[in-house]
């Protein structure tokens, strides 16, 4: 009983299985009366019949069987010579039930087959074509069997549209009922020998590969030996067929690889992309991989569509892990794509190019990046924000590449020094790079120091300026350089004091007006002094304050504490030089004046942000060190802070070398594996 119940469930499931559907049309209207629809088919004109047949098709597709209209459609619609009505009749035959409850064809279907045979032999190419396409969707053997003899002659029809659909019809019939047309592959193969239409050849090759692979192989060999130029659609089909044959028969790849390699000379971007991806999938010889990389790089630089370039770049990134050395030879070709790329694509190209930098191409890479830095200042890149973001990325790329190959640092440092004063994240990236170069290349320290001293009044970033001050304390060793630096800092803070001095009995909260005087020379040579009243509270809002002074006046006391630390280190260094007593005293007095001015200003109540306790304590500690610098402990402390950074830098350099060696070893292993797996493939190609 249990087995009987299971069998009943299976039969019920099969009986309720949805019929195959090749057409979906939504219909939310009301159902007209059957009598009205039938009368419209019988007595209406062509327009009325067309609209009525559309309604019948929609009702059938939305669950209301309309099989009782089959005879009416055959009598009143099929004989009408109207292409729109003829197409609607095809849709109706496609969706209507053509079998009864017992699985046998309806009596009307015999008459329908007669009309379909006439359409397959119709003088109009469109009628033949749509009828052949309809047969591709027919599953009933009883409908197809009497029509086979009328389908085959269409393979030699004079119009390509008919031949194309005839191949599809033969393919569909042979795939379902091969005994109805056993010579189908032979007919199609004979037709393809002289066929010139690209789509017809593509459909024919797909049919032969699916149903008669030995004939498809013969066709591929004939195409390979002919050396003729083929259309884009057929070339794509050839490449895909060759790929599947190689995957099924790996030891016969020598017969099909030349076909794919010859397709690399196509002018179609889609064919080139498909060939390159196919070579990466099935080939392992150096020649094939190099050709694939060159093809993808060519598409990246020449294709006009940004989305296509992103897809190509993704394939190149996937190649990087296995074929890094091959891609390194194409670095300059990859960088050429920057000239015609959008913001997102430029960012991804630069990131990808940095990973390809090696000792062989580092010099070319830096030259290209320097040109891009110059181009980033033009309107070609975009607005100011886009230019700034792009420059930051370029500077970061140069930083990453040159740190791995310090020998080229002298070529890059003079150019990057011009970007220290730029607003945005790129300036901080530049100063980080200069800091590493200064320790890795001591011969460049003088150049970096001199240029940075000149830029103190022009730097617009507090973070960058703090790094510069630390770098000064590490690079300044001689008495003359210390004097020059302290003088430059003092000039950058002019005029001092930062806030008006508070007289005895005065009030710190006095925000009364002060005076600013200026002397003007008249045309007759006389001098006139102009006096202007200025509110003390608005001193911090002056727009003519730039660089170090502007940041301090705006209340950046963290920068002030960094300045105090730098001045203290400089004074300690100065007092351990023998001689230069006058210079030491002058430097010490200047540093004391600077810190006193900062503390006085911070505690005056005129600042937007009051001087906090932590920074006040650091400034006072720096002031104490400046007043008492003659201590060996202080000198050792200054030296050890520099040595600590140098140790960290060396450790990071060792890590980079270790990672580079691992990456190179991985790439060499991939190349050796590719060579071992080639099996003579390179010779065959």
UniProtKB/TrEMBL annotation:
<dbReference type="InterPro" id="IPR016460">
    <property type="entry name" value="COPB1"/>
</dbReference>
<dbReference type="GO" id="GO:0030126">
    <property type="term" value="C:COPI vesicle coat"/>
</dbReference>
<dbReference type="GO" id="GO:0006886">
    <property type="term" value="P:intracellular protein transport"/>
</dbReference>
<dbReference type="InterPro" id="IPR011989">
    <property type="entry name" value="ARM-like"/>
</dbReference>
<feature type="domain" description="Clathrin/coatomer adaptor adaptin-like N-terminal">
    <location>
        <begin position="34"/>
        <end position="481"/>
    </location>
</feature>
<dbReference type="InterPro" id="IPR002553">
    <property type="entry name" value="Clathrin/coatomer_adapt-like_N"/>
</dbReference>
<dbReference type="InterPro" id="IPR016024">
    <property type="entry name" value="ARM-type_fold"/>
</dbReference>
<dbReference type="GO" id="GO:0006888">
    <property type="term" value="P:endoplasmic reticulum to Golgi vesicle-mediated transport"/>
</dbReference>
<dbReference type="GO" id="GO:0006891">
    <property type="term" value="P:intra-Golgi vesicle-mediated transport"/>
</dbReference>
<protein>
    <recommendedName>
        <fullName>Clathrin/coatomer adaptor adaptin-like N-terminal domain-containing protein</fullName>
    </recommendedName>
</protein>
<dbReference type="Pfam" id="PF01602">
    <property type="entry name" value="Adaptin_N"/>
</dbReference>
């Amino acid at each position: 009983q249990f087995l009987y119940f299971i069998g009943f469930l299976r039969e019920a499931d099969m009986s309720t299985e949805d019929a195959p559907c090749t057409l979906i049309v939504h219909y939310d209207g009301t159902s007209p009366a059957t009598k009205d629809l039938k009368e419209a088919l019988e007595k209406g004109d062509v327009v009325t019949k067309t609209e009525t047949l559309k309604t019948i098709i929609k009702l059938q597709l939305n669950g209301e069987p309309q099989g009782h209209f089959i005879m009416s459609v055959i009598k009143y619609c099929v004989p009408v010579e109207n292409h729109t009505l003829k197409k609607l009749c095809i849709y109706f035959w496609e969706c209507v039930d053509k079998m009864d409850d017992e699985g046998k064809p309806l009596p009307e279907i015999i008459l329908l087959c007669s009309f379909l045979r006439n359409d397959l032999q119709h003088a109009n190419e469109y009628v033949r074509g749509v009828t052949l396409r309809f047969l591709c969707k027919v599953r009933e053997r009883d409908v197809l069997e009497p029509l086979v003899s009328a389908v085959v002659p269409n393979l030699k029809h004079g119009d390509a549209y008919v031949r194309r659909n005839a191949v599809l019809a033969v393919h569909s019939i042979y795939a379902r009922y091969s005994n109805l047309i056993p010579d189908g592959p032979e007919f199609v193969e004979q037709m393809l020998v002289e066929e010139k239409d690209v789509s017809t050849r593509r459909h024919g090759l797909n049919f032969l590969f699916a149903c008669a692979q030995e004939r498809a192989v013969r066709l591929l060999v004939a195409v390979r030996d002919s050396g003729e130029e083929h259309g884009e659609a057929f070339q794509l089909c050839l490449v895909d067929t060759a790929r599947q044959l190689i995957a099924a028969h790996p030891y016969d790849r020598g017969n099909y690889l030349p076909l794919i390699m010859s397709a690399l000379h196509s002018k179609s971007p889609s064919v080139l992309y498909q060939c390159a991806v196919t070579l990466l999938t099935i080939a392992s010889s150096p020649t094939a991989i190099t050709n694939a990389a060159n093809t993808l790089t060519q598409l990246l630089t020449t294709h006009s569509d940004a989305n296509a370039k992103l897809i190509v770049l993704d394939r190149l990134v996937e190649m990087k892990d296995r074929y890094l050395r091959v891609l390194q030879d194409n670095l300059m070709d990859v960088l050429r794509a920057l000239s015609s790329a959008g913001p997102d694509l430029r960012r991804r190209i630069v990131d990808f190019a940095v990973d390809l930098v090696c000792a062989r191409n580092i010099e070319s890479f830096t030259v290209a990046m320097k040109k891009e830095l110059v181009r980033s200042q033009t309107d070609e890149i975009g607005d100011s924000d886009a230019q700034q973001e792009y420059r930051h990325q370029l500077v970061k790329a140069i930083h990453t590449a040159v740190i791995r190959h310090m020998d080229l640092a002298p070529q890059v440092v003079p150019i990057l020094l011009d970007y220290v004063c730029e607003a945005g994240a790129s300036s901080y990236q530049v100063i980080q790079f200069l800091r590493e170069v200064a320790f890795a290349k001591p011969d460049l320290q003088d150049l970096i120091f001199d240029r940075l001293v000149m830029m103190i009044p022009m730097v617009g970033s507090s973070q960058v300026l703090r790094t510069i001050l630390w770098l000064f304390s590490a690079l300044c060793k001689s008495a003359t350089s210390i004097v020059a630096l302290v003088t430059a800092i003092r000039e950058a803070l002019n005029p001092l004091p930062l806030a008006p001095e508070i007289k005895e009995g005065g009030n710190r909260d006095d925000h009364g007006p002060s005076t600013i005087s200026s002397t003007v020379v008249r045309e007759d040579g006389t001098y006139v002094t102009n006096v202007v009243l200025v509110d003390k509270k608005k001193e911090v809002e002056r727009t003519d304050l730039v660089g170090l002074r502007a940041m301090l006046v705006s209340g950046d006391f963290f920068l002030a504490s960094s300045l105090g630390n730098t001045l203290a280190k400089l004074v300690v260094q100065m007092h351990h030089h023998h001689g230069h007593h006058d210079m030491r005293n002058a430097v010490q007095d200047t540093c004391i004046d600077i810190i006193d001015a900062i503390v006085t200003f911070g505690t005056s109540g005129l600042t937007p942000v009051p001087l906090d306790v932590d920074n006040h304590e650091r400034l006072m500690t720096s002031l104490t060190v400046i007043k008492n610098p003659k201590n060996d402990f202080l000198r050792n402390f200054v030296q050890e802070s520099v040595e600590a950074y140098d140790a960290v830098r060396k450790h990071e350099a060792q890590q980079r070398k270790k990672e580079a060696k691992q990456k190179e070893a991985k790439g060499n292993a991939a190349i050796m594996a590719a060579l071992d797996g080639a099996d003579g493939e390179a010779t065959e190609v």
